[in-house]
Give the backbone structure.
Amino acid sequence: MLLPRCFAQGSRRLGMLLAISLFASLSCAEQPSAPSPVAAPMRPLPWGQLNFLATTDTHGWLAGHLQEPQYSADWGDYISFATRIKEQADERGVDVLLIDCGDRIEGNGIYDASSPKGLYTYDIFRQQHIDVITTGNHELYQPNASDREYQLSVPNSRGNYLASNLDYIIPETGEQVPMAQRFRKFTTKNQKIEVLAFGFLFDFRGNANNTRVQKVENTIKEKWFQDAIREKVDLFVVAGHIILPGKEVKALYEAIRRQNWDTPIQFFGGHSHIRDFHKYDSSAYGIQGGRYLETVGWMSIDGIPKKSEKTKSISADSAKKDISFKRRYIDNNLFGYHYHTGLNETTFPTKLGQNASESIRLARKALDLDHSYGCAPKNLWLSRAQYPSNDSILTWLDTEVMPEVIVNPKRKDVPTLALTNSGAMRFDIFKGPFTRDSTYILSPFISKFLYIKDVPYESAKRVLTLINNAGQVLAAQNLPSASVLGPPEQISDCEDSKAPEPLQPLTFSDQRPLSSTSSKHLPNLIPGYTTKDDGGDDGDDTQHAPISFYNVPNCIQSEISFPEKGAPETVDVVFVDFIQPWVLAALAFSGAVYKIDDVELYREETLTELITGWIGKHWQKEC
Ligand SMILES: *[C@@H]1O[C@H](CO)[C@@H](O)[C@H](O)[C@H]1NC(C)=O
Ligand SMILES: *[C@@H]1O[C@H](CO)[C@@H](O)[C@H](O)[C@H]1NC(C)=O
Ligand SMILES: *[C@@H]1O[C@H](CO)[C@@H](O)[C@H](O)[C@H]1NC(C)=O
Ligand SMILES: *[C@@H]1O[C@H](CO)[C@@H](O)[C@H](O)[C@H]1NC(C)=O
Ligand SMILES: *[C@@H]1O[C@H](CO)[C@@H](O)[C@H](O)[C@H]1NC(C)=O
């Protein structure tokens, strides 16, 4: 139904020379297999003098969500949206800036399935003109990924990549250089607002040896930073791959405020994959735009006082207004994009956006991402179902998958405790085809199983409890908090915090439902985010029925080949490589001291390959 109309439009625009199939997908935008968005009650965007569109933690989801209508727009649609919003800003005489706070890679087939990784994604990503772009921790785990940041992302960003506390080591010379410029000062197009922007990464320690992350507390002592915050600008922008309540943002806020008691500051956060809005004072706020191209954060600032004399006349009336900061979380789908722009499927798309959508489609095809390994019989949730329960991915993993794949011919029938961290799983499994793409969405990591043989059971049996409940004990051994082993959504402070954090259960499940009166008037709401933040509970652009999210443990465990009765004397302790430091620390704490040399490889295949193999065997091929 949709295709012929799109085709007609495409052919008018581009002439009759190209193949029909190209037109069909070219002009429709979003991915051909994406579900259509569902209409829902909406809240409009609050506009100000200066407005922002902010993404973070997109993790390669350029194609959008092909199994969830609410997030079904792709990167090309976002390009069209940004272009249309900028056109409207020009008409209103205000400004729009785009921000991206890192973790653009790892977590979706279109990045992970190619060799080298990201073969298609860097070129597609750069089609969006972003004004401030920063680095996440995921860009720095693999040396090759940091190389690509330096060689591709930085030049692609046309001078807008900021690396305030990150250096890169040039492989040929060993020379340590800033990954990109430390900060950037610019004046906005229409309102002539003078902005000074920084780009930070939290105090991350897990990077490969070809980058250096400087602690934020040290960076703010450097001369260039101290000079920069003494510049007389109208607004400071701090984009960071940092959680908004994190200690790094607090240090930056305090440093800037010491020099500027009233200059507005706008923070942009990331890393923990949530929607968040944070008030520091009446002229300093932060927003975080979720994850996986589900959310585009919208921020508007109005009444920005002008510091510079020469531009005062341009908006003399702004001095009279009180400054205000407003936010909105935009669900990434075409229904919302049309609503916010007042355009429709004919008038909304831009050539640049359609070209990006087409590039995404071709890349997915080249990588055969729709190849199906099996058909999931039902939805399995990472944090939308309680653990343990039949709808939990982690229960499926520890009761069905692990007992079958944790086998090693050399250790046949040896009682085994097998541990996997819950953070090794990144997303849900939806009823329907489990594809090549799904494997990277579920777990993009190249984790392998390692083991220590013949560990006294009395010590081995305490490891799980220690990692899940006794973070303090392990943190005392100078390890990052074991909460880094869980999903990013459960990050409550940054990895390097010195003070051991108690592992408190987080209260995702009390995200507030819409009030009962509004529910009565708005039946059939689609389940989705019902965010509550420092601005209240009206931040989401789409009114949703609430979804409950549950806290999950840092690690799960399977008992394999245990005797029918009684406890074994010794067991093999099998674990994914990522958690080795915590396993060794927990064993040592329980009286079983092992060295790295005692650890051997248990299976060649990665965790993801083992899961895919299990699915191929147990879930029927066709849906
Ligand atoms: C279309 O997109 C591709 C990749 O995303 C890019 O290389 C190419 O330059 C784009 N073409 C146009 C006309 O924008
Ligand atoms: C990193 O890049 C080099 C050279 O491009 C390549 O030989 C190597 O296989 C890559 N390593 C990984 C882990 O991708
Ligand atoms: C990083 O580690 C690798 C492997 O251990 C080594 O070959 C390389 O020289 C190191 N690079 C730097 C910049 O230290
Ligand atoms: C889209 O909007 C244009 C301009 O308002 C209008 O002419 C056209 O009929 C609309 N198309 C659809 C499919 O609604
Ligand atoms: C969970 O699944 C198991 C095995 O399929 C079944 O025996 C059990 O009744 C299920 N529990 C619930 C609460 O559905």
